[in-house]
Amino acid sequence: MTIAVSNELLLRSDANGIATLTLNRPAQRNALSLALMEAISAELDRIKDDAAVRLVIITGAGPAFCSGHDLKELRSDPRRSFHEQTFALCSAMMQKIINLPQPVIAAVNGIATAAGCQLVATCDLAVAAEETRFATPGVNIGLFCSTPMVALSRAVPRKHAMEMLLTGDPIDAQTALKYGLVNRIAPAPQVMEESLALAHEIVAKSPLTLKIGKAAFYRQAELGLAEAYQYASQVMTENMMAMDAAEGIDAFLAKRRPEWKGC
Length: 263
Prior knowledge:
By secondary structure, the protein is an alpha/beta fold. Helix content is 50%, strand content 17%. It contains 11 helices and 11 strands. It has helices at residues 34-48, 71-76, 80-99, 115-122, 146-155, 158-167, 173-179, 191-203, 207-221, 225-240, 243-254; strands at 2-5, 10-15, 18-23, 55-60, 64-66, 104-108, 111-113, 125-129, 133-135, 171-172, 184-186. Strands 1-2-3-4-6-8-11 form a 7-stranded mixed sheet, with helices on both faces. It has a 4-stranded mixed sheet with strand order 5-7-9-10.
């Protein structure tokens, strides 16, 4: 089933526990207008409590994944309050992806620049087309990519992030793979196929375990070493109390396929 959301700026299709969100402004290279960001945020709110959705894929219509913020829209209103609203909405949307219980895969089918690169870095996993280019080019137009920097600096090593931010130069998919910005590369016609293969491998796991693990991953990353181990030990203990953990261990020992209950 395909659902048109927010005047078709965002398309959603659901199948086999996977919700695919397609940014649908191909003529604008899927630039993140206020309306598009509001549509994405609203859809993420709907998905987070939907037990039928086990994983989310975000992709773009047309030849680009996402070219970043809509610069024409940014220049259309010079008020400080408008710019505060724009960047606050984008930051909140990115955090909703991190806080979403379900894993999120970026299926990057074309350029991903500025806030588009930020979106890739924010998603839990990413599959990119061989021809994809990634960049944080704000420095070239007098607007440092400060908010994309938050996600980029958490996804790739510091010196690689600084080079991208200070030069604005694009990197190719192979370099993005080396940096750790993406997980897999595929020929352009096979990006969605490769993304779905990765998605199906993940959704075969316990949904409770995936939820626990994603939340724990991001929380421990912000803690010191001792605090991270203390927190992770508590998470492991709670996880061991779950029915799915007992089922998974028993199935492993009995050499059979587990039957997940999601609790």
